[in-house]
Amino acid sequence: EIVLTQSPGTLSLSPGETATLSCRASQRVSSSYLAWYQQKPGQAPRLLISGASSRATGIPDRFSGSGSGTDFTLTISRMEPEDFAVYYCQQYGSSPPLFTFGPGTKVDIK
Amino acid sequence: QVQLQESGPGLVKTSETLSLTCAVSGFSISSGYYWGWTRQSPWKGLEWIGSIYHSGGAYYNPSLKSRVTMSADTSKNQFSLKLTSVTAADTAVFYCVRSAGSGSPFDSWGQGTLVTVSS
Question: CA-based, 20 to 30 A from B53: which of A76, A84, A97, B89?
Fold first, then answer.
C-alpha cells in the first residue's frame, strides 16, 4: 500500500502570498494518478487537481499541480481569503483499485 | 449536475451493523461511473471504504474488506453500504462519492453524515 506524507502540517500565510504544499509517496505513483482536494470546515472535500496537474472543472488557474513519481506539489498563487482550508493529496491506483489519502496540510491566515 | 445525499442512522450500537444509503440525483448510476464510500475521522483521517459499479462489481479497502458489503439499486438510483461488527473506532463522517473509474479521483461528494458508534 502506498503511504502519502504531506508537508508542512500547517502553513500560515497572508492573502496575496503563494502557498507551496508537498505530497510525498512511499512508492512511485503510477501514471501520475495523484489528486488534490480542498476541504473547508463542515464541508466535503472538493476535487482541485487530477493526474497530478490537470485542474478540475471550475477550479481557478491560481491552483496548479506538478510532480511525478513520488514527489508532488500543489501551488496556490496569490492566496485569496476563500483559499484558507485544509488540502489533501490522494493517490488512486487502478490495479487493483485502491485510493489512499495523505494526512492533509492546513493553510491558515497569518 | 450530479448530487449525492447520504442517509441512515446517526447512532449505531457497538458490534451491530452500520447501514447507509446514498441517493443520487442528476445522473443515472446505470450510465456508468463507480460509486463509493469514504469516511473521515480525527484518528484515521480520510479513508476510502470501497466502490461499486452499477452492475454490481465492487472493490473494497483491504483493511475493511471482511466487514464491508456494498450494493446498488438502479431502480431507485441509489447505492448502499453495510459495515458489520462496528466499534467506537468506526465513528466517523461518512461520504458517498463518485469516480469515473478505478483510475480516476472522486469528482463528486455527498455532504457527509456523522455516524457515532456507542454502546
Answer: B89
* Interface residue A45 vs chain B (CB under 8 A): yes
Beta strands in chain B (DSSP E): 3-7, 11-13, 18-25, 34-41, 45-53, 58-60, 68-73, 78-83, 92-99, 106-109, 113-118
pLDDT tens across A45-60, in order?
999 999 999 999 999 9
Q: What residues in A contact B34, CB-CB < 8 Å?
A: 97
Chain A: closest CA distance from residue B61 (Å)? 7
Which pLDDT score is estimated for B57?
Answer: 86
Q: What confidence tens digit (pLDDT) does each residue in B44-67 have? A: 999 999 999 877 789 999 999 999
